[in-house]
Design goal:
PspA_VIPP1, mainly alpha, 127 residues, 2 domains
Length: 127
Amino acid sequence: MNLLETKIKEAAGKKSQMTARVRTANSTQKINDMLSGLTGQTSMDAFNRMEEKVLALEAVAEVSAEMAQTTMNKALAPSSGKGSSSDIEMQFRLLEASDSLDKELEELKANMLPSPSSVSSALDNNG
């Protein structure tokens, strides 16, 4: 029984070591990617990339606000055929609208924002 416990502890220790090594490797890779992205480029290029990222984030935020407003309008609209809706009906419509909002937002993100790999390759090609 002690042998089994020892092996389990060893495996847990190895798992912790491997996790730490992965984190270190990822951090090193990120630093190397940042440094390689800076070589051969002017400060103005970096500024332009930063501005593009900000504009993209602002566009996503604007779309998100518009979608939230649409969701609220749908949820607060009276149900068809009834003069007023109950609290439960309103909550149900809010949930439905929220689900559709999440789906629309994911679709917009997928269509509007470039994938991290394409951004990385574009930066590598410019550098």
